């Protein structure tokens, strides 16, 4: 009888729990799952944005157009009279076939993305959408470098402001100023500082210290564009990383450091044995938040570079608004989502922040 009563009580409690969760599940379904499912479906069609054109289901054609790549070997051009490879008089290297002559054109046309040499052989990497492959590269490089620098700098700042010193409150407030500035405003500020003339602060400083002969076009020269974007993002977002890590530092009990000091552990030993292990959950949250933001970076690239260099998000915008290709833009959004999800799983696994059964 007691077991039956407990069973009935457990069932009623379970039913009550489901009833309490139902409103939240409905809201989640409406504002998250349904739109995400709609994007997945649209990515499988040729739907046009703001168009009366009839939409057709095309399967994975959008993904094939975005992600199809091929590698083809380039053979040296043979001189018909001597039957030997032709040498370039300027470089002293062989004259190779043109990439356009070896890249496939059917059923999908490939364009040259990169040529490279491995073990003396020349190859060409072709892609059906060169701009999107370049956008993926730009976004991943931007994300990895900027998030790594923000983690290192943010951890250093968090350790400093977590210590006791005079003016700690003012320092913590001042630390958040770059993060509080609207991203578009900060991008315009950096645009002026990176200007390719004497009005640009960086060119002025480099010129004053005789480090350059000619002004550097940071936002026009492809070699400096991505480093400039990384610098802008690191300046803007390092305070946010420091704030999250500071919150994690303040949850670590002081008694642990006192006990470690009594045992003779120095600052480095305390950091490696106490601070870093206990800071891993906060670090994982900070990395996931920052990586999510960095992988879908839009405003900095759009304001400073326009269409000269794409991130995945700005290329998505270009396809949706510029080309009105809603199906292709939806496929790009799905790819961004998958990449972000992959990074989140990697962080959680590598930092070991899974919840144990005993926790």
From TrEMBL:
Q: Which GO BP terms sit in this record?
A: transmembrane transport
Q: How does it sit in the membrane?
A: Multi-pass membrane protein
At the top level of its lineage, which domain of life is listed?
Bacteria
List the keywords (alphabetical).
Answer: Cell membrane, Membrane, Transmembrane, Transmembrane helix, Transport
Please verify whether the record's keywords include Transport. Answer: yes
The Swiss-Prot or TrEMBL record describes its family as follows: Belongs to the binding-protein-dependent transport system permease family.
Name assigned to this protein:
Trehalose/maltose transport system permease protein
Native species of this protein?
Answer: Tindallia californiensis
């Amino acid at each position: 009888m007691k077991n039956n009563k407990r069973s009935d009580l457990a069932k009623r409690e379970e039913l009550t729990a489901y009833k309490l969760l139902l409103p939240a599940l409905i809201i989640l379904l409406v504002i998250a799952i349904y739109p995400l499912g709609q994007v997945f479906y649209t990515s499988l069609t040729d739907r046009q944005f703001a168009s009366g054109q009839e939409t057709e289901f095309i399967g994975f054609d959008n993904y094939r157009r975005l992600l199809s790549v091929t590698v083809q070997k380039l053979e040296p051009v043979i001189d018909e009279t001597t039957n030997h490879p032709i040498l370039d008089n300027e470089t002293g290297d062989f004259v190779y076939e043109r990439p356009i002559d070896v890249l496939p054109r059917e059923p999908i046309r490939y364009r040259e993305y990169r040529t490279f040499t491995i073990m003396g052989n020349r190859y060409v990497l072709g892609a059906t959408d060169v701009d999107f492959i370049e956008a993926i590269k730009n976004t991943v490089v931007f994300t990895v470098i900027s998030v790594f620098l923000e983690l290192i700098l943010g951890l250093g700042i968090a350790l400093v402001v977590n210590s006791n010193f005079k003016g700690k409150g003012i320092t913590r407030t001042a630390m958040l100023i770059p993060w509080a500035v609207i991203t578009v405003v900060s991008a315009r500020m950096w645009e002026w500082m990176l200007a390719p003339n004497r009005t640009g602060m960086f060119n002025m400083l480099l010129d004053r210290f005789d480090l350059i002969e000619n002004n550097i076009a940071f936002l026009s020269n492809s070699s400096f564009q991505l480093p400039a974007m990384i610098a802008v993002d690191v300046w803007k977002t390092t305070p946010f990383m420091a704030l999250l890590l500071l919150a994690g530092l303040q949850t670590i009990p002081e008694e642990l450091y006192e006990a470690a000091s009594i045992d003779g552990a120095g600052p480095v030993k305390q950091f490696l044995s106490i601070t870093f292990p206990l800071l891993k959950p906060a670090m994982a949250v900070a990395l996931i938040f920052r990586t999510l933001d960095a992988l879908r970076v839009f405003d900095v690239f759009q304001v400073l570079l326009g269409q000269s260099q794409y991130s995945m998000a700005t290329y998505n915008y270009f396809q949706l608004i510029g080309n009105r290709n809603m199906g292709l833009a939806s496929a790009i959004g799905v790819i961004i989502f998958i990449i972000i999800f992959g990074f989140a799983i990697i962080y959680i696994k590598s930092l070991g922040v899974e919840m144990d059964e005993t926790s």
